[in-house]
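Record type: monomer structure entry
Structure origin: computed from sequence
Chain ID: A
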Amino acid sequence: MNMTYQQLMDELNRLVVSRSSGTLFIHSDCNHALTFTLESGQIIALYFGPRKGRKVIPLTLAISGGSCRFDPDGPSREPQDLPSTQEIMAQLNSNRVAPVTMPGSPSELSVEPWPEEIRGRFLGELQVVLTDHLGPIADIIFNESMAEMNGQSVNEDSFQHLIDRLALNMEPGDISRFQDQVADILSGIGPRK
């Protein structure tokens, strides 16, 4: 079952409060694997793909949802040097990475594909910004992220998923600047209808 970010955090909080031991596995909607290892309700290890420890917290903040399962017999992990469980939960629940916002209210978002000229300009400028952040590997990451969209047209409804996927490949401190740059691109591409 697909869950929102907040529902995933509610499930993690439930496991903490009930003093559970085991591993919470999350498969994000951006196709990333996250694990939270708990021991008597305390978070002792965090993993986001191959990354682990404190640096996982900002990466987790960038996902928008996914699915999860809890395994009380999950793999045992060595305790990591982490903030307290209360601090981790506070960060995960209150310091969300602000999503890129589109001009207009959500009800004004279009599901119509962007005209080819607008689409090409947006994607071209997006690749330039991505390359500034990631270097030469940006082309590979961009093409993989586009492929994960399964042929879905880029429009105002779908672009946020693309941006979220791309942001997960950045250092946590670069995500906000990347989102600001994307917002600037979007505000400069003109009418989309």
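Annotation 1: The longest strand covers residues 22-28.
Annotation 2: The mean pLDDT is 78.
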